[in-house]
Amino acid sequence: MDLFEALYTTRAMRRVSPDPVPEEVAAAMLDAAIRAPSGGNSQNWRFIVVTDPEVRSRLGPLYRRAWDRLRSTVYAGRWEKAQEAGDEAALAVMRSSQWLADNFETVPMWLMAFHRNDPSGASIYPAVWSAMLAARAHGVGTCLTTILGTFEHDSTCEVLGVPTERGWRLAAAVSCGYPLGRWGLARREPADRVAFQDRWGEPLPFAVPNPMWLP
Ligand SMILES: Cc1cc2nc3c(=O)[nH]c(=O)nc-3n(C[C@H](O)[C@H](O)[C@H](O)COP(=O)(O)O)c2cc1C
């Protein structure tokens, strides 16, 4: 697959079928992940590939509790505001996030990513994104989520037997499965509206009003 196609179409594909993700795809995701950069090349990462229905059934309620916490705190009023404003894009994100919470157990694979001794907290995310791009190349949809780590860290780590006493922290839970919908171009605020030249507020000398890769 063309690199730019993968970059432009790796969306949050939350709605997926329960069909299993083949082990070769899990292997390709992990092998891509561990090629990623990390601060000082520390590679302070660990991953857990969760497919066992029993483990998923124990994590599902924790994920839903975390999602409810997010909705009642950080996202408080967001759904209602989006409804009032008729903001279809925001409503679509909320609906599909709700789907993921409601269907946690049927998502066939979750890739859990852990890190430690990383004050920036940044070293794990290139690896996670590389895993997601590798999944995309194999037609597997992913969605990066962080709510388990934010709201249900210890309970999640307990289910997964994570040695938290050695500093390991859950950074991300990535849902993985074959998409029920179609791949599409990620819509975003154009680059030339969110980037400056040399100093904050100074416009770029070039415009990028439209996606530079199109399907
Ligand atoms: C750091 C981070 C945390 C995220 N956490 C969640 C989450 O907890 N639940 C969820 O459903 N999606 C989560 N997402 C997915 C975003 O909602 C998604 O990437 C965004 O809406 C853009 O989606 P699109 O690429 O399909 O347009 C997260 C994404 C990032 C980068």
What can you see in these coordinates?
- This protein is 43% helix and 13% strand.
- It is globular.
- The chain has a four-stranded antiparallel sheet with strand order 1-2-4-3, sandwiched between helices.
- With 215 residues, the chain is an alpha+beta fold.
- The protein contains nine helices and four strands.
- It has one domain: NADH Oxidase, CATH 3.40.109.10.
- The protein starts with a helix and ends in a 21-residue tail after the last helix.
- Bound molecules: flavin mononucleotide.
- Flavin mononucleotide (FMN) binds next to helix 5 and strand 3.
The domain tally reads: 1
- Helix/strand structural class: alpha+beta
Let me know the largest β-sheet. 4 strands, antiparallel
CATH fold node name: NADH Oxidase
Question: Compute the gyration radius: what is it?
Answer: 18 Å
CATH class: Alpha Beta
